[in-house]
Amino acid sequence: MRIAVNARFLLEGRLEGIGRYSYEISKRLVEQHPEDEFVFLFDREYSDDFVFGKNVIPVVLFPPARHPFLWYLWFEWAVPKALKKYRADVFFSPDGYLSLRTRVPTLMCIHDLAFVHFPDLISGVVSRFYHYFTPKYLRKAARIVTVSNFVKNDIQAKYHIPASKISVTPNAAQPEFRPLDADEKVQVKTRFSAGKDYFFFVGAVHPRKNVHRLIRAFDVFKKQTHSDVQLLIAGRFAWQTGEVKDAFEASSFQSDIHFLGYVSEADLPGLMGSALAFVWVSLFEGFGIPLLEAMHAEVPLITSSVSAMPEVAGDAALLVNPESCDEIATAMNSIYSNAELRINLVSKGRKQRDKFSWDASADLIYDLLKQTAGR
After folding, report:
1. Do 241 and 158 share a structural domain?
2. What strands lie across the sheet with 166-168, from one edge to the other?
3. Which of 10, 17, 9 is CA-nearest to residue 204?
4. Same domain for 145 and 215?
5. Same domain, 195 and 334
6. Which regions of 124-256 does DSSP assign to beta strands (E)?
């Protein structure tokens, strides 16, 4: 079987979200199926690290697709030509886009419908593109995969796509995330939090991640406990971050709040594994890989009671209303003051994390690719 793969999110040093899913699934497909040939379609120069085997043909298609107009050209002009040239049996597109002009059957993964629920957080031209093309993509795809039952149900409710057409292939965590011993934790805390305990957040800093309410909740927690606990925020500043800056400037505890910026893959497992708790109170997620990373690091969780986060966290987290700073602060206080609760959440996390596996998801993707190709 010759499988074409949309590889445009395989970006060196920038495997966030969709990029991580693309990497983990594609790597396993290539390595586990040497009998098949894979055509990886990039939209710019690629790293050789993403050519996972001798059965991969890497192809760069013009133009680089990072704007709606260029998305259209890449998917409706460059991609169908490449699929025809390389005689693909099936096209796997893991980023929620596909080509409407190709006759090659397509398996498409869509990770969420955030643009439907939070239209104000997306620029006008991008929002119009998503609202116009996403329903067309969903109808065109031979099969659809998504990363949670929440997103599957969301797609059905919004676009009336039959449930039989949609499969769920969850994300998983990286093996680098593991429990740390006491000495390792001391080293991380000495480097990042002046040796003090800390709550940890990782993710792009923009309104949907709700960092501004996390900061306000941290203020409430500090006033309640008078503790020396810190708040470490790891992630690049994205767009519309005025609320985050306003919350920080209004905080009475600025010296205890640290913006780390983008954290390297080498440093992230240590930061996660040394945290008093991982606090991820996003307003909306189609999945939530960091929740699993915290479980593998054996760190207690606080997360939101909305969208896919309860599905991923199970009973291994304190669930809060993400729009309530008081609820978030109360959960922080509970984690801080109750060692037995911390132990209990970690124990439940060990069981919950076993429900998610990249290998299992890649196996299901391969079966769906064979079905889609008619094999």
Report:
1. no
2. 56-60, 37-42, 2-6, 90-93, 106-109, 143-146, 166-168
3. 17
4. no
5. yes
6. 143-146, 166-168, 198-202, 230-234
Q: Which pLDDT score, from 0 to 100, does residue 275 have? A: 98
Q: What is the DSSP string of 42-103?
A: ESS---GGG--STTEEEEE-SSP--SHHHHHHIIIIIHHHHHHHTT-SEEEETTS---SS--
Domain carrying residue 17? 2-172+357-373
Distance of CA 294 to the CA centre of its chain: 14
pLDDT of residue 239: 62
Amino acid (one-letter) located at 278: F
In a domain, 215, yes or no: yes
For the record, the structure tokens of 288 come out as 């939530």
Q: Is the Cβ–Cβ distance between 235 and 204 less than 8 Å? A: yes
Please state, in angstroms and rounded to a whole number, the distance separating the CA atoms of residues 195 and 188: 8
Query: Is 177 a member of any domain?
Result: no
Span 189-213, pLDDT tens digits: 999 999 999 999 998 888 889 999 9
* pLDDT for position 240: 61
One domain, residues 41 and 160: yes
Is the pLDDT assigned to residue 121 strictly greater than 90? no
Q: What is the CATH number of the domain that holds 129?
A: 3.40.50.2000
In the chain, the number of structural domains is: 2
Q: Are residues 99 and 196 in the same domain?
A: no
Is residue 236 within 8 A of residue 147, CB to CB? The reply is: no
**Do 344 and 198 share a structural domain?**
yes
Alpha helices by DSSP H, listed for 141-199, are 149-159, 182-192
Model pLDDT for residues 283-305, shown as the tens digit of each residue: 999 999 999 999 999 999 999 99
List the structure tokens of 251. Answer: 């905080």
